From TrEMBL:
Species name: Rhizobium paknamense
EC numbers: 3.1.-.-
Entry-linked InterPro entries: MetalPrtase_cat_dom_sf_prd, YbeY, YbeY_CS
Source species, domain of life: Bacteria
Chief localization: cytoplasm
Descriptive protein name: Endoribonuclease YbeY
SUPFAM superfamilies per the UniProt record, alphabetical: Metalloproteases ('zincins'), catalytic domain (SSF55486)
Binding, Zn(2+): H126, H130, H136
Subcellular location as annotated: Cytoplasm
Free-text cofactor note: Binds 1 zinc ion.
Function comment: Single strand-specific metallo-endoribonuclease involved in late-stage 70S ribosome quality control and in maturation of the 3' terminus of the 16S rRNA.
Length: 168
């Protein structure tokens, strides 16, 4: 997907190699971007849009979560859009940052009886959609976002992560 310039940084945690994460990120975010272009008719600039992925640990993401969301606890993924965007708007040259915590992803994968890779893929898609203005604060918004996630993950050969769960 030439529409994305993906920057990967491994800051802390027992992650796969940076090369593996770069390949996975290109595959997952490329599929998500292709889906948005095709199915949602998401406009993209003519030049590649930059997105950064930061792979860290629970301690680091807890501090970020406390500072930016006033929630002093670790979380699986945080997304920080570079600019406010409404779903369907054309993004600027910098889409934003996605930060993912290793220990939380691992715990959740075990709890969900999914592989680490499958859960990480889901969280990458989830974080990416947040950068495009999608959210899950209301039932309607959650249904829209979860529907997009499910369809993108299906294109990647993964099952519906929300099957059997209530929305929001």
């Amino acid at each position: 997907m030439s529409k994305l310039d993906i920057q990967v940084a491994v800051e802390d945690g027992d992650w796969p190699s940076e090369a593996e994460l770069e390949a996975m990120s290109a595959r997952v975010l490329g599929a998500a971007a292709d889906f948005l272009l095709r199915e949602e008719e998401q406009p993209f600039p003519d030049m590649p849009v930059e997105v950064s992925l930061v792979f860290t640990n629970d301690e680091e993401i807890r501090g970020i979560n406390a500072e930016w969301r006033s929630q002093d606890k670790p979380t699986n993924v945080l997304s920080f859009p570079a600019f406010p965007i409404i779903p369907g708007d054309r993004p600027g040259p910098m889409l934003g940052d996605i930060i993912i915590a290793r220990e939380t992803v691992q715990r959740e994968a075990v709890d969900l009886e999914k592989s680490f890779s499958e859960h990480l893929t889901h969280l990458m898609v989830h974080g990416f959609l947040h950068l495009f203005g999608y959210d899950h604060m209301t039932t309607e918004d959650a249904e829209e976002m979860e529907g997009l996630e499910t369809r993108i993950l299906a294109e990647l050969g993964l099952s519906d992560p929300y099957a059997g769960q209530e929305t929001v």
